[in-house]
Amino acid sequence: MEKNEQMIFKKPAVIMSITALALTIYAWFFLHAESQVSIAILLVAAVLAVILSRRFGVTQLVEESATQRPGLSRLLMVGCCVALIAVFHSSHFVLLMLCGVLLYSTACLGLTVQVGYSGVANFAGAAFFGIGSYATAVLASQTAIPHLLIILIAGISAAVIGSLLILPVLRTRGHYAALVTIAFGILFKTFIEVNDVLGGPQGLQVPGMNLFGFSFNEGFSLFGLEISFYVSYALLSLAVFAGVYALVNALERSWIGLSMDVVRTDETAASTFGLDIVRWKVVAFTMGNFFAGIAGGLYGMVIGFIAPNNFTFGDSLLMLSIVILGGLGNIAGLIPAAVIVLILPEKLQFIQEYRFLLYASLVILILLFRPQGLLPRKTRIFFARKGS
Amino acid sequence: MAGKTLISVDKLTMRFGGLTALDELTMTVQEGEILGLLGPNGSGKTTFFNVLTGLYKASSGSISLDGEKILGQTPQQIYRNGVARTFQRSRLSLSLTVFDNIVIGDYQRMQHGLIFNLLKRKSFRSEYDAYVDKVKALLEIFSPPLVGRLFEPVDSFTMIDRRRIEVCRALLSQPRLLLLDEPSAGMTHDETDELMQDILHVRGKLEKLSVVLIEHEMNVIERITDRCVVLNYGKKIAEGNYGSITADPLVQTAYLGEAE
Q: What is the per-residue pLDDT across A53-104, written as a single tens digit (0 to 9) for each?
């Protein structure tokens, strides 16, 4: 009897499902909680749970199962998100936050390709996100191009405008390349602010998504339930995130990901083995900006109104801190990191002005005790080995 | 050694500001030989490797590989022409696995397309599987114990294993010329012996491979090289087999004389 139980608990599928269920339930409590006491209890519970599960090897067990069944773990992740969206089907605010987390994480997937894989600095993530938003705002209000295509064009615009930066970024190194991108981010925001055609400091209205005749901005009811219009946006954001995640995941486990890693770790060795360093940096930079542009385009439609203040240098830093907090180069860490960076400050409203102080100390503490991030990047395994 | 000339270097000069690191160096590497490159510290041995692999741009002179001029080509082009090397200070990507570090050595034959790598995962899988077999086969010849640790990160390996991995990375693309920059640096006597045994073993399997070896340990030189070139202050001061160069008075004063 006892043996049997152990067998069941050693099965990766069972372990994964239990973990997913626990995380979903926790997320539900967390998103629901409003009183100070309950949020404080939940935070303490989370810290305790992390410490205890590491002490008793639960974390390791879950990680092992996830590496054994990568497909299943991704499916469960999507399942968790759909479940949360379904539970909060009528809560505008929670759904809006979920969209934010998913789309910021999508942009961070792009940043991971740049900073995490090929080592190209980008402190202008929010600018490329913003280029996507503005491209969408202009195209959706002025033209009749189908909206999905517009999102794609938003990504291409970010990639094309980003290519202006390729030369200065590649000709400089390290901190200097970082400075170039910082300058670009500031330039972008200032350009938008003084440009009346793009709405100046007041910003621009972004038309809602219209998919094959279905307008996302109209709420609807299903089985007699009032459904928030954000549900459609959240599902679409999830689809975009999942799609980009799948691409970046494949990229890491391919010759391209390997080449980018070698270029990042040792350019001299890379060039003596024939790797074209410029090529991989350009591919990474362009691809990352494309993903940021797509995410920004959809984000503009979700929030319905964009202004230069949505895309400041501070927002670029926010994106980078998600990438680093999650574990530089590990895309599985992006969602938990985005939740901490984006949702936690909202939830800590009860301590008012002090919330950013608490939140900032938390980030510092995490990086102090876990400098590789919440979920450090793992050694690359191209394909999960069957059995054993 | 009346083979074909693989590399011929003619009046190669490399200056760093006022310092002449290579001074009108003229030499050849024959197909299939193991050539020892000797000289005291700072005599230009590593500089020669860096010029030969395109990392440094020479001031004047010429280098040709099998008749084709390679001086002035980029490191990438020279690699594609069949020249691979190891470095004096190990240049592996420590966070990557043994497989990752070795397989990148055959970069020129991998498919680099975005569509192939990201979307055609089945085709990628079969190319990947072929590479796993290829890397395993190479390790099987060179260092069988490493086969079982193929997917462990390199930072968990000892110095001698890292050197072996570096040599395998250089060999995977089946180069015509292998440049070994002081492979015994930082290793014990026994480890050096072991590594040289491995190198001789591989050379036995790949007959056409030429090797240029920079080395300080004279017994290693004696054991494995067919011919030696001795440099001092960037100039070639002697050339010949081990017996003749050690008997050369110029070499004795420049290099061996210090030890006696």
A: 888 888 888 888 887 787 888 888 888 889 888 888 888 888 999 999 999 9
Q: Lowest-confidence range among A111-115, A217-221, B215-219? A: A217-221
CB contact under 8 A, A268 and B96: no
CB-count exposure of residue A60 (10 Å: 0-12, 13-18, 19+):
exposed
Residue in this structure with the two tokens 């492979």, named with its chain if needed: B183
Strands B83-85 and A305-306: unpaired
Nearest beta carbon to residue B117 from set A254, A268, A270: A254
What is residue A219's three-state secondary structure? coil
Nearest CA in chain B to A269: B91
Q: How far apart are CA A364 and CA A126, in angstroms?
A: 22
Query: What b-and-e string marks burial along A83-118, b requiring 16 or more CB atoms within 10 Å of the CB?
Result: bbbeebbebeebbbbbbbbbbbbbbbbbbbbbbbbb
Binning chain B into helix, strand and coil, the percentages to the nearest 5 are: 45, 25, 30
Q: Specify whether the backbone of A381 is left (phi greater than 0), alpha (psi in -120 to 50) or beta.
A: beta
Q: How far apart are CA B113 and CA B183, in angstroms?
A: 35
pLDDT, tens digit (0-9, with 9 covering 90-100), for A355-380: 677 777 877 887 788 888 888 888 88
Q: Give the separation between CA A198 and CA A130, rounded to whole angstroms.
A: 12
Chain B residue numbers touching A382 (CB-CB < 8 A): 128
- Rounded to 10 degrees, the C-alpha dihedral B226/B230/B236/B238 comes to -70
* Strand ranges inside chain A, DSSP E: 204-205, 210-211, 214-215, 220-222, 225-227, 305-306
Contact check, Cβ <8 Å, A379/B80: no
Residue A292 three-state SS: helix
Q: How does B66-85 read in b/e, with b if 16+ C-beta sit within 10 Å? A: eeeebbebebbebbebbbbb
- Looking at residue A234, its amino acid is A
Q: Which residues contact residue B100 at a Cβ distance below 8 angstroms, ignoring those fewer than 6 apart? A: A258, A261, A262, A380, B93
Q: Kindly list the structural domains of chain B, giving each domain's residue range(s) and its CATH number in brackets, ordered by start.
A: 1-82+176-194+211-260 (3.40.50.300), 94-174 (no CATH)
On the question of pLDDT at B203 being above 90, the answer is: no
- Report the sign of the C-alpha dihedral through residues A116, A121, A123, A124, in that order: negative
pLDDT digits (tens, 9 = 90+) for A108-151: 999 999 999 999 989 999 999 999 999 999 999 888 889 899 99
Name B64's bridge partners: B8, B69
- CB atoms under 10 Å from CB of A361, counted, come to 11
Q: Rounded to a whole number, what is the largest CA-CA distance in chain B?
A: 65
The predicted structure's pLDDT at residue A10? 63
Task: Compute the Cα dihedral for A305, A95, A245, A276 and give only its sign.
Answer: positive
Which of the following CATH numbers is that of domain A88-369: 1.10.510, 1.10.3470, 3.40.50, 1.10.3860?
A: 1.10.3470
Determine whether the interchain pair B107/A259 forms a contact, defined as Cβ–Cβ distance below 8 Å: yes
Looking at residue A388, what is its pLDDT? 35
Report chain A residues whose CB lies below 8 A from the CB of B128: 382-383
Interface ipTM: 0.91
